[in-house]
Amino acid sequence: MSIRIAIGQVNPRLGDLQANLALYKERIGHAADDKAQLLLFPELSLTGYMLRDTVPAVALKLDSPEIKQLTALSRKLAFVAGLVEESPDHRFFNSAVYFEDGAVRHVHRKVYLPTYGMFDEQRYFARGDRVRAFDSKFGRMALLICEDLWHPSTIYLAALDGALAVLCPSASPLRGIVDQQSQDDNARYWEMLNHVYAETYSLFMVYGNRCGFEDGVGFWGGSEIVDPFGERLAKARYYEEDFIAIDAGFEAVRRKRTMSPLLRDEDLDLTINELMRIRERPGAEIVRKFKGSKVQDRRTAKKK
Amino acid sequence: MIQIPINTVLLRQILVAFIRNEVRKTGLVRVVVGLSGGVDSALSAMLAAEALGPKNVMGVMMPYKNSNPDSQAHAEMVAGKSDIESLLVDITPQIDGYFERFPDADARRRGNKMARERMTILYDQSMRWNALVLGTSNKTELLLGYGTIHGDMASALNPLGDLYKTQVWALSEAIGVPPVIVIKEPSADLWSGQTDEGELGFSYREVDKLLYLMVDRRYTKAELAAAGFPERFIDDIATRIMNSQFKRRLPVIAKVSQRTIDRDFRYSRDWGK
Question: What pTM was estimated for this model as a whole?
Fold first, then answer.
C-alpha cells in the first residue's frame, strides 16, 4: 500500500491560537489539493514554542470547540497537530494529536521534557507517562515528540509495539556552529538520528520540524521523510516555510524486514530481564529518580 | 590549538534569516543602525541590507568634534558600498551644552554620555522612520561588560550578540566589509587615542579563546589553566563577567506581589508575534 505523506513546515505565531488555527486550515486545504492522505505538523505549531506563562491561555481540552474544528477538518485528510493539551484535572501536556476521519484517534503526551540549557519545558508542562503505537487506517504508527526521540528507549518501544512509521513533530532550535558543516550541529544530529532509526528499526521516519524565530532562537526546518532502507524520500528547505509530500510505499517495510529481520529476532524477555536486574543494581536510582515512576511506586507498595 | 568555529556561510544564512524574521514579525520592515565606522556596525548594517533590502536600512553617523575623522570616512564607505540610506547628526552641541555645566567631567563620563546621546538619537530616528534599532554589540564586549549600559548596548534586536570578535572579523571579511575597516585597530573612539585592546589590557583574539572555552565549552578553571591560560588572566576575566552581569539584565525589581515581572511573570518578547 502506498500513502501520500506530507509535512507542513510552518512558522506559527507565538501564543496566537486563532492565527495558527487559520494557518492549519490553510495548510490542510493545500495538502488535500495535493492529494496528501496524511499531514504532519511540527511540535506546538498550533501555539508556538516559547510559550512560558501563556501555556494555560492556549491549552485545549479535547472536547473544546477548537479541537472540534480540527476534528471536522480531518474528514479531508488525516493529520497530526502539535498543541498544548489540558487534562480534565488541569495538567498541561505538550501533545501530538492524531486526527483521522472526523475523530481523535490517538494522543501522545511528550514524555521527555527538556529542562536544561535553553529549555524550560518541565517548568510549564506535565510529563507524559506512556509510549504506545496505535492503529491508523494506513497501518500501525507511533507519535514521538522531538526530545522523546533522543531517548532510544522510546523508538525501541514504538518499534516493538508494531509501528511501521514514526511520526515526529519537532521544534528543534538551531544551535552550535561547526566548521565545514552546511548546517548547525543540531540539524546534523537529527538527520543522523532519523537515518539510523529508520534503518535500524526498519520503519518510516517522518520528521516535521518548524521554522522561524522566537526571541532570537531560530528553528532550522529541514523536515524529512526517510524510508526503512535509510533513503531520504523528501526533504524540506532549511529555515523557511515549506510543504513536502511523497508517495510512501509501505511494502518497503516488508521488504526491509524480510531482508534484515532484526525486529523479529529482538529478544524482548532478555531486555526485560536485564532491565529488571539493572533497576535493582546499586546506583540505579539515577534511572528511576523521576517522580511519579509507576515502576518504583509498585515496588514500594509491595514492600509495605 | 583552540579553534573558535567560524562557519561564515552558515552564520550569514542564519543572521540574515534572523533579522528578516524578527523585524517583519513586529509588522515593520526597516531598521536604523548607528554607523561608527567600526567593524561591528559595518557588519550589522550589511547583514540588515541583505535581509531587508538596502533601502530599508538607515545608517546614522553621529560624530563628536573630537572623533577621529577616519571614523566618519569609514562609515560613509560602508553606507556607499551597501547602498543603504544614511544620515549625519553631529552630537557636539548636545554634548558640549550639557558639559558646560559640569566642566570637570572625566573622559569616561563624557564617553558614556556620548554613547547614550547616540542611543536617544537612534531611538528618535527609529520612530521617525518607523523602524527598529539594530544592535551592534558582540559577544566579547557583552561578556566583558565593555559597553555603555543604555548606550551602545541598547537595541531592539542584535544579530551580533552571540558572535565573538574573532567571528565578527571573519564574517565581515566574508561578506565584504571594506578591508580597511576589518583590519584597523578596534576603538570606541570616545577620546583621542583610545583603543579597545589598550584599554582592556589584552587582545581580542586571546580573550576570545578563553571566553569560548569558559562560556561555550564550560571549561573549569583547572581545565583552562591546563589549556595554557595564566591563572591571573582567568580570574580577571571571570571577575569581569561577574561584575558586569548587571549590564546584561533588567533593573532589579523589589518583589512584593505574587507575580513580578521577569520573576514569575514570564513571557517571551515575541509574545503574540
Answer: 0.93
